[in-house]
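Hey,
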Amino acid sequence: MESISPGERDVCFERLAAGTKAAIDVTREGGPEMMGSAASVLTQYDIEEVQVHCNGAFSQKEIESLYKRFCALDRGGKGYLTGDEVMSIPEFALNPIHQRLLVSFEGVNFKDFCGAMAAFSSRASMEKKLRFVFNVYDATGKGTIGREDMLQILRDMTGSFLTEEQRQRAVTRALEEAGFSQNPALTFSDFSKVMGTSSFSLEVEVPTLD
């Protein structure tokens, strides 16, 4: 079988990272989803508590920006987001893996919303970024992911950009280079090793709102 090039493999995983980022880039200012509930004022204690929860991933201004966005999405003022409210984010609803991402955001309060978003901060560690993506793959919460999980994400994210044969080769090569069999049950540690064989970038910018 023809060997997939390193560049071809990296494109697969870069498209996964970019697509996941786009799906939850909910911190942009503007758009109809910013209308609705007015954000109440966060206390300094609230902000510091969120910063601790997110391991310093966001500055005070970024947290205030995220809170304004959260309150705009939480139109009923319940203090948490429903699935329908999360799906009102266009970038999220149109993304092919939105059902997987929904698990991380449905029913979350503001602190946990920031906790999920922290994986996409430029200040987040690679381990935190990989942990978030691992949980996206592990949709059933079993604590491991397999070859088919990895293939399905690539199918969703690459569409017609790559053929099924190219996707199969991409996963095969990544597993081989990391020293795993072709039908693995990868733990998070294993998954980190596999992903370490390819380029990986997962960041989101949080605008400052005056």
